[in-house]
Queue: 2 jobs
Job 1
Amino acid sequence: MNTINTTNSLEKDNTVTSEQLQFTGAETQSKRQGSFVSFDTQTAPKKDVKNTIKLSTSDVHVYYGESEAIKGIDLEIYENEVIAFIGPSGCGKSTFLRTLNRMNDTIDSCRVTGKVLLDNQDIYDPNLDVVLLRAQVGMVFQKPNPFPKSIFENVAYGPKLHGLARDKYDLEEIVENSLHKAGLWDEVKDRLNQPGTGLSGGQQQRLCIARTIAVSPEVILMDEPCSALDPIATAKVEELISELSTQYTIAIVTHSMQQAARVSDRTAYFHLGDLIEVNSTEKVFTQPDHQLTEAYITGRFG
Ligand SMILES: Nc1ncnc2c1ncn2[C@@H]1O[C@H](COP(=O)(O)OP(=O)(O)OP(=O)(O)O)[C@@H](O)[C@H]1O
Ligand SMILES: [Mg+2]
């Protein structure tokens, strides 16, 4: 039987940043796109989301030093839904997203209180294996961040680390399936040994999605995954999000309200560290409950 090398060679590669290892967030400012969004029921998801709770947070507060960035958020995220997080810059969307797979742990000044449950299990339990958690709850960042390795190795990295492949052939199958699911296989099947960094931005982002999928996550967190992409690449990633949502639970931060309307089942509006409202995306964009939400979606705030 063939054996595969499970050595974590990336750790020895000093060109790899901690961000690429998905142990920190990629924080850059981004701009609002668009103002008022017309809700198009033709493109809106029609998925029948069952209300099985996948992730839940209760009374979650996040502090950077003395400053409170998240002020007590209760939220339930359902299995196989796409939930969009929207709100003005600096209101805590990325911070809150990172509490869902403990990415905030890597920021020294950051402290999280409250409860976050994944399938009813406390993810802040000190005995929990955080590396495993981050495979179960994977993350895709704003800026595509492939490892400085081949396309194949980018996707094979996680399965090797977690010992998910029985042998070389099994690993090849995982890589191929993940690239298929990420809608990238046809574009890269003849160049698997070329560097991932040689792909276009949109292809790199789909490669990062393939890398996330390769470890069989249950939840995928996406922090403005299209903000560095052109409209064509954005459309491909959005299509992919809709396809992936039949199998995974997805939470996506976006500054594009059109994107939230196109891809999400529910939308959560954040404002200065508070969760102001969470409702079906159609309701948020047509009849929001709260005036702060309305001010934001009509372009009067943000
Ligand atoms: N690493 C950090 N150290 C200190 N403060 C931080 C850090 N990251 C975020 N903050 C602060 O926490 C608050 C929330 O920031 P966060 O990045 O979560 O907002 P956001 O809604 O994602 O904004 P944007 O839309 O610009 O990405 C802001 O006041 C920000 O300055
Ligand atoms: Mg952010």
Note: DSSP finds ten helices and ten strands in the chain.
Job 2
Amino acid sequence: MNRIFSYFTLGAIIVLSTALGNHAKAENEASYFEANHGFNLGLNEMVDLSEIEGFERVRSTADLARFASKVPGAVGFTAHPSFESGQHRFASAVLWYSHLSPSNMSWRLYLFDEKEAKKQPGEAATEEALAAAEAQISDKLKTAKELIDGSGRRGVILHGDQKEKDIVARAVLQLSGTFQHTGEFGSNCAGCRLVVLGGTPARCGLGIQGKDHMNCCGSITKDGFCRFWELLLAREKAEQIRVRQ
Ligand SMILES: [Zn+2]
Ligand SMILES: [Zn+2]
């Protein structure tokens, strides 16, 4: 009888402590860790938190953590550096990101998983993230093929928003396609080609002046393709390789 009772007691203690454990976990749901890395380059999937009801009450980073943790599939969140001051209320829940960049290359990244947060720039993203990125690129292979076929010898011009371009560009490169210098604002190889002295759509004005700059491959030859995406992906790879060595 005593033994039966003690088994029962033991069982009850286990059940009780499991319940307490779960309870504690529920309360800690919004614990978050500032990542040692950022999410620049690569592909990612985010949810704009400003589009979710209740965002106006979100003020602090801790609020953000609680709020973002309710987004299905979120692994963390990111926000404009002056979010807490109320100046720039831009914040997103992060569903996945395929490249771990230096932390100063993106807005600060906060993750719910401490182990992931401790990863250094260049370490491998989670398998889920890599698979999601691959799937996005695969989905665009048909579009990329059509763009390559339709662009003839001049190279592809990408359309759509930045996210679409990021994905399609990778698909084009997988199919060994090439890109055209466009010289358009808001596209790669942009304003520096049209507004900087010496620049033309095919020649980078800042390139002629020998100045490094963003969003342009810097090419100063009149012929040839835009190497912007190629250079971007090469940098992504270089960051990853540095870690493996
Ligand atoms: Zn340029
Ligand atoms: Zn270019």
Note: Residues 30 and 69 are 6 Å apart (CA to CA).
